[in-house]
Amino acid sequence: MREIEVTGKTVEEAVSLGLEQLGVDRSLVEIEILEQPSKGILGLFGQKPAKVKLTIKSKVMEKARKFLDDVISAMGVNVGYEVLERDDHLLINLYGSDVGILIGYRGETLDALQYITNLAANKNEITPRRIILDAQGYRERREKTLIRLAEKVAEKVRQKGRPFALEPMTPQERRIIHTALQNFEGVYTYSEGEDPNRKVIIAPKR
């Protein structure tokens, strides 16, 4: 819960009720007064309560920026980034002539950087936010490549009736394969092995 709207007889009462519901100190929230209380006709009819919105302050974006700035500076690479707000996460898109260094072999460096960025930015945060790192559309391109591969291999498995083991993949990439083939007629998928050598097996349905 990052924000709530609360009513009360007075603004202060509404704020107090909101802080109680959120379970946080006043210094950790931003307060917006949506409606002032009104007494109505003759002080009796049409009375309206005060209405406020309390939003928990978050430093996730600020800490993510600082962490990435430090990493990019330490590596000495020519890379910039933009931060985009999404409903349920922050999308950070990396770009620049050296962005391939931060992608790494099949996205392994990008995944590792995403993982530690999430750890650094969400440390001690009351309401953590998921951070997704991309690099000039790499994740979308990689996903399309994996889906094409999965469908091509699945067709061969269906025709030949023999299982096929794909190369080791990250958990995110294995998830893409499983999802792509969950409704593919005549085959099923499962994972085998231990990370980082865990791989997806595409097998024929008997």
TrEMBL record:
CDD domains with a match to the protein in the record: KH-II_Jag, R3H_jag
GO molecular function terms noted in the UniProt entry: RNA binding
Chain positions covered by the region annotation Jag_N domain: 5-55
The protein's name: RNA-binding protein KhpB
PANTHER family for this protein: PROTEIN JAG (PTHR35800), RNA-BINDING PROTEIN KHPB (PTHR35800:SF1)
Name of the gene this protein is made from: jag
Function (record text): A probable RNA chaperone. Forms a complex with KhpA which binds to cellular RNA and controls its expression. Plays a role in peptidoglycan (PG) homeostasis and cell length regulation.
Family that this chain belongs to: Belongs to the KhpB RNA-binding protein family.
Pfam name, any one: R3H
Principal cellular location given in the protein's record: cytoplasm
